[in-house]
Specification:
This protein is α/β, with parallel strands linked by helices. It has a domain of about 190 residues: FAD/NAD(P)-binding domain. It is built from twelve helices and 18 strands. The strands form three sheets. Strands 1, 2, 8, 9, 10, 11, 17 and 18 form an eight-stranded mixed sheet that branches. Strands 5-6-4-13-14-15-12-16 form an eight-stranded mixed sheet, sandwiched between helices. Strands 3-7 form a two-stranded antiparallel sheet. A hairpin with a 5-residue loop joins β13 and β14. α4 crosses α11. The chain is globular. The structure holds flavin-adenine dinucleotide.
């Protein structure tokens, strides 16, 4: 590498700008107030506005500075847990609700993109999960079989097929889920914002919600330089939930995920690596995920350390991963590096909460929020508009803060180290241990 990569995200460097949005500087009123302008919040706002109801969104930062503007843009169907396990663990009814909702989530993403003409380099040719060890293959085959039984367009991949689709001989095989795809994540987010505003939503940025109280029959939220009175409030703050909503903040553990983007690949490599435009997640415990962007850059992410935020200190682990995928990628200059926080839940599932009448929250996508947060936003909008909880096809759970949450960062750090070591032992890969400066 000759020059160090830029310390901003590829997505902000390659996305059409959004017009500047106002700050909240007065007292306002709306039927629904959404706090947080990521996919959850903007999908909620769009669906409320499309129903012809008044909605205001408060965003603490610039639009896209949360996970939704920083992620890998992989549109992944399904949850971390397989459909059969969900049915066993939560019963047939709730298990199939969770499975169906997560299975349909990519349809919602691509439908919104089509319906609102969102220009975000959307490609829907599939998401692949590929094994770095023979030991992982039976589990991947069972996963594909469970989805195939439920009618999904999936296929098991041999090592040869995986090599043809990725241009890499690193993988022993795996499966492809053709319901998945990729988007330019920030362009998708800005497109949702434009669509919501065209439908009547008002979005205020640099306007953190700071205090929530009962007012009349609804809620008052003080924030920015003003306040909003609303009948219903939706908390859509995921990994970026702050102390203003401390119980909710303590329901998730946040871990950093760091990405790099190479320079555009030369035509020869471009024709060999991911020629079909699919995206990949591997089966390492600290998973590595990659895809191409619209200019043929390889964008690769893996877990980072807390000291790597907002700007990665080192990209050694990424350079190593690129080399393992394809030796020639080691010679490609890295042009961008950036990171963000992922919210993990104790049970590995996203949660919809309704802690009080008219107060809703949706979060905890465990690294699969592009599709699922969009779907959660629609669920929250339907509920905020008065649809009975029983007809939502998604369970509502009580807010249960994690005990000793203050130690979770320490525990996450120790776990990351341990998982790195296990990955190294299992695959024989000498992936460098990540420093943890924080
Ligand atoms: C590096 C990285 C890579 C990822 N890759 C993928 C991927 O490829 N595929 C996938 O499916 N998922 C991926 N994810 C996860 C995905 O990005 C998230 O699950 C998803 O974006 C969550 O959306 P959200 O709207 O719930 O939260 P966010 O997009 O994080 O939005 C929450 C917003 O709330 C705001 N906020 C917080 N507190 C307040 C307050 N008090 N007042 C007002 N606003 C507030 C924040 O500023 C933030 O903008 C990745 C995440 C990261 C960080």
């Amino acid at each position: 590498m000759t020059t160090p990569p830029a310390t901003g995200s590829l997505w902000s460097a390659t996305c059409a700008p959004l017009e500047p949005l106002p700050r909240l500087l007065a007292e306002r009123r709306a039927e629904v107030l959404v706090i947080g302008a990521g996919y959850t919040g903007l999908s909620a706002a769009l669906h409320v506005a499309e129903a012809g109801r008044e909605v205001i969104v408060l965003e603490a930062r610039e639009l896209g500075e949360g996970g939704s503007g920083l992620n890998g843009g992989q549109v992944i169907p399904g949850l971390k847990h397989d459909p059969d396990l969900l049915a066993v663990r939560y019963g047939e009814r709730i298990g199939s609700q969770l499975t169906a909702c997560s299975a349909q989530a990519p349809d919602l993403v691509f439908d919104l993109i089509g319906r609102h003409s969102i220009e975000c380099d959307a490609v829907r040719t599939g998401w692949m999960q590929l094994a770095v060890s023979e030991k992982h293959l039976p589990g991947l085959r069972r996963r594909a079989e469970q989805w195939r039984r439920r009618g999904a367009d999936v296929a098991v991949l041999s090592d040869r097929e995986a090599a043809q689709l990725t241009g890499s001989t690193r993988y022993c095989g795996g499966w492809i889920d053709r319901r998945g795809g990729v988007v330019q994540p920030l362009a998708y987010l800005r497109g949702l914002a434009r669509a919501a505003m065209r439908s009547g939503a008002r979005i205020f940025t640099h306007s953190p919600a700071m205090a929530l109280s009962r007012a009349g029959g609804g809620w008052r939220v003080a924030g920015g330089g003003g306040s909003v009175d609303a009948q219903a409030v939706i908390l859509a703050t995921d990994a970026y939930t702050d102390a203003a909503f401390d119980d909710l903040r303590r329901t998730v553990v946040t871990v950093p995920s760091i990405q790099v983007a190479t320079a555009p690949l030369p035509a020869r490599l471009r024709a060999a690596i991911l020629p079909g435009g699919q995206s990949v997640s591997d089966t390492q415990r600290l998973l590595c995920y990659f895809r191409l962007d619209a200019s043929g850059r390889l964008v690769l992410g893996t877990r980072g350390s807390y000291g790597d935020l907002p700007v990665p200190v080192t990209t050694t682990a990424h350079e190593h991963a690129l080399r393992e995928i394809h030796p020639e990628l080691a010679r490609m200059p890295l042009e961008y590096r950036w990171g963000g926080l992922v919210a993990l839940t104790r049970d590995g599932l996203p949660h919809l909460h309704e802690p009080a009448p008219g107060l809703l929250a949706g979060l905890g996508y465990n690294g699969r929020g592009v599709a699922m947060a969009t779907a959660m936003g629609r669920l929250l909008a339907r509920r905020a508009l008065g649809e009975p909880a029983e007809s939502l096809e998604f369970p509502s759970t009580p807010i249960r803060p994690i005990r000793l949450h203050g130690l979770s960062r320490l525990a996450a750090r120790a776990t990351i180290r341990c998982l790195q070591l296990l990955d190294t032992l299992e695959t024989g890969s000498r992936r460098p241990l990540q420093r943890d400066a924080a």
